[in-house]
Amino acid sequence: MKKIFTIAASLLIGVTAFAQQALWGGPQVVSPQINEDGTVTFRYQNPKAVKVQLTGDCLPSQKIEVPGFGTFDVPGSVDLKEGPNGIWEYTTPQPVAPEFYNYNFIVDGQKELDLNNVFVNRDIANLTSVLLVPGGHADLYTVKNVPHGAITKQWYYSQKAGFNRRLSVYTPAGYEEGKGKYPVLYVLHGIGGDENAWLEQGRAAQILDNLIAEGKAVPMIVVFTNGNISQEAAPLETSTGYTIPTTALPQTMEGSFETSFPEIVKFIDSHYRTIAKKQSRAVCGLSMGGFHTLYLSLNYPDLFNYSGMFSAAIGVSDTSISPIYQNFDTKLATYFSKKPALLWIGCGNTDFLYKANIEFTKKLSENNFPYTYVETEGGHIWKNWRVYLSEFVPLLFK
Amino acid sequence: MKKIFTIAASLLIGVTAFAQQALWGGPQVVSPQINEDGTVTFRYQNPKAVKVQLTGDCLPSQKIEVPGFGTFDVPGSVDLKEGPNGIWEYTTPQPVAPEFYNYNFIVDGQKELDLNNVFVNRDIANLTSVLLVPGGHADLYTVKNVPHGAITKQWYYSQKAGFNRRLSVYTPAGYEEGKGKYPVLYVLHGIGGDENAWLEQGRAAQILDNLIAEGKAVPMIVVFTNGNISQEAAPLETSTGYTIPTTALPQTMEGSFETSFPEIVKFIDSHYRTIAKKQSRAVCGLSMGGFHTLYLSLNYPDLFNYSGMFSAAIGVSDTSISPIYQNFDTKLATYFSKKPALLWIGCGNTDFLYKANIEFTKKLSENNFPYTYVETEGGHIWKNWRVYLSEFVPLLFK
User: pTM (2 decimals)?
Assistant: First the structure.
């Protein structure tokens, strides 16, 4: 009797596995594979391919020249070598440093995902395979056996937009069990991003879980807004149907988002157990989100006690188009007269926004306005933004 | 002055766009494209490919014979035709019926995603591109301009497992604003699935939002469990690091999940505003989740008033291995003696579990036990499970 059931169970699994194979093709080879010596092997099975390459930020970068624009670092590429059964392979010559990486294969000139790796991320309109090498600072990006905060995809009605809009909200472990109130950090994305970006590419939930579990950060509520006021939510979550994500959205850096921000704070303060005062409120953001952070801080000097500008997109947009961006020097003086606890500025030394950020810090220094400046290697990349968040969060609400 | 800023803004966007192009390659062509006449065009750019095919459940199915196992319907495939610039194209000869579809390209025999379509789903270990054709019953699967429930990824400590485990919880629109209590539906996944499956492949949040907005279902809390008691969470969300999802997990159909279920109900009843009684509690599940639904209902006859078995995996596993599965007839009689409001059974007429489900309904009829049976076309597929959920939910808590 037992045997019959076992055969039947095999059939259930067998048909499913068979169906996968036949219908969609499950994983054929192991890729990526982190080896014992810390090197990583990438594999791609395709007997008919002529040339298979790997590109990604796990490889040394290469410099490219854009005429009229300057020189930029982009991920390098290497050739895979074909072995038995049409399995192409590349093993890094050196151990790969701990980091959260994105990569693709280029098969006869065509970008492809590593379909043996089910870990795929979308960044704006780009799909990449993901490799997380644990260790060092990247341990913060891993899911550990620690208490986990909850992530809620939450909708609020925006008077400014005239429709429902979506937020992601992190509530720390223990929030549901207790009755206590928590400080709030608002985290803003870059151009083309949305309320998912920091959680997917930014590993923000893991960073928060781990920093709080280690006692390096205080438990806090963290709100990930959607900074594209013309949109309801991330591109795949709206009633407008399928649209390709783009950096060229309307109403991103023309004052609407900053003008609408108080309604988000009001919603959060009325729906979560927050400490609803300046001393317990922080804001930070990357690129466009750093620009938003600056102008939210200046226009609402009584709202945030801590502000973090990560590779902020300052000095690049037409700030004449909204009152939000005008009377800059007066607003800056007012902001500092109210003695915020922290203005934190981080930028990579090859970022195309590096010069603008340095100029801003000079202006602050000339006026004896206090700020913290952290400079890292590299450019306008998620690798830096995850580090900036990891360094900013422990400074808050203490 | 304004001009300088405009140029700088273009530079910001330009570099980003350029970077996409250079680093990862953004969308090159439009695919998929739903045409005005309802046909769909798929495109894939690759000048070096010799043969490009499309496969997916948007194409007529084909029958395949598995020696010793029987005949199975699998998605068909068609050839794309190469046009200018190496852009391969296929337009369906007929309008494509409204549905949530999965598809892939097969390029010289190799499965690939449609990288011009950023909408990708993972089902167990399989990545597919997604096409949602709105209209008809598939309108329930679209995000509409209606009030949206919130989705929370929530962790609870499992005494049975000895570690933290993750749930997905849907709270209906208005939950946060009010103080009222809600009935609870527990929704269970199939073998190889996890707490994300019903929300990603099952479109459950959209179905619930839309049914509630239309007044066809009462507002309810819906809990999506992880039925693999050996795991913390979905494969990419655990502290065990990167693992390839598989249907061959331990502790899936041997009683552990059913034994541990009361701790989930206890957690939900103590953390959400639930109506914590049988009359306001329902359970349903697909395949393995239908099997779990049956044995949860029989072993805890005072827990659920409504049970939904969707293509339930009954009659295929070794039920001698746990007391949960023993004394079936006695438990069945006890269950019905307590007059549950609904036992709902749905199965496709080409499902490999069809015969077992028919036999079960015969057994019920012979004993004059009341049940609702819905038979559809097709097999063991998500298309059916979304329909079953859409039909089951309106019957609850009325």
Answer: 0.93
Candidate from B24, B177, B248 with C-beta closest to A13 = B248
Number of Cα atoms under 13 Å in the Cβ half of residue B245? 27
Of residues B111, B148, B253, nearest to A25 (C-beta):
B111
In tens, the pLDDT along A15-29 reads 443 343 333 444 568
Q: Is the pLDDT of residue B4 over 60?
A: no
Take residue B298 and report the two structure tokens written for it. Answer: 């029989």
Q: Give the pLDDT score at A27.
A: 52
| pLDDT confidence of residue B13 | 41
Q: Which residue of B has its CA nearest to A75?
A: B23
Q: How far is CA B155 from CA A172, A397, B242, in A?
A: 11, 25, 19
End-to-end Cα spacing for chain B: 65
Cβ(B392)–Cβ(B344) under 8 Å? yes
> Do A118 and B12 count as a contact with CB atoms less than 8 A apart?
no
What integer pLDDT is reported at residue B56 of this predicted model? Answer: 94
From CA B148, how far away is CA B173, in angstroms rounded? 5
The position carrying tokens 């499970």 is: B385
Residue B194, SS3 per DSSP: coil
- ipTM summary value: 0.91
Touching check for A11 and chain B: CB below 8 Å? yes
CA distance B393 to B172: 13
Distance CA B190, CA B101 (A): 19
